[in-house]
Amino acid sequence: MGCALDEELIDKARDFHGHWCPGLAIGIRAGEWVRQNLGTSADEEIVAVVETDACGVDAIQVLTGCTFGKGNLIYSDQGKQAYSFYRRGDGKSARLVLDNQKLGGGPDDQIAALFQKSAQGTISAEEQQVLNDFKEGWAKTIMEAELDDVFVIKQAGPMPKKARIMKSIVCAECGEATMETRTRNMHGQTFCQACFAQRESRM
Q1: Which residues pair with 191 in a beta bridge?
Q2: Could you tell me the residue range of the domain that residue 82 belongs to?
Q3: Do 139 and 80 form a contact (C-beta atoms < 8 A)?
Q4: What distance in Å separates the CA atoms of residue 133 and residue 68, rounded to the nearest whole number?
Q5: pLDDT 10s digits, 98-127
Q6: Are residues 124 and 64 in the same domain?
Q7: CB 200 within 8 Å of CB 183
Q8: pLDDT tens for residues 140-191?
Q9: Domain count, the chain
Q10: Rounded to whole angstroms, how far apart are CA atoms 135 and 153?
């Protein structure tokens, strides 16, 4: 059956991200699961915890209503294609982990090397075409697969706390207002993290 989302929603995610790629397709399928099982978030009803800062997170924002600005999109830097979703009203939740094996294995060593060369700007035109063909085919595979073959569904961790508005304190060094919980104290003065680190490095 594959992805059941309207083309309009898929186009909206692609336009927001700026291009089409396998990573965006992963996020689209995660967003599809959320819409089917939890609904969408007009405010903070749905919470997403994403363990990567890769392309798919853009699709999750568009399709679920979870955003950094509302405080219901939380980035946990784990380097994994894994996404946890929570519905505050009834506590329903799940953690979705990409399952490359069910999808056919994902990028092999050759493709991984081409991704690296592309990022470094050392890829040839012929190699770029091989990489482009892979990305197009991999995205198609992701979009056409059943959701159960895209993700392993696991138990999510504890429900994240609601976003809070924190007091701001002016840094004694740069004079910039900084969230209180992100400040550091030294010799009776309060500093932002950047200024604190600079002072530490001079000690």
Answers
A1: 184
A2: 7-154
A3: no
A4: 33
A5: 999 888 878 888 999 999 999 999 999 999
A6: yes
A7: no
A8: 999 999 999 999 999 999 999 887 778 999 999 999 999 998 999 998 999 9
A9: 2
A10: 24
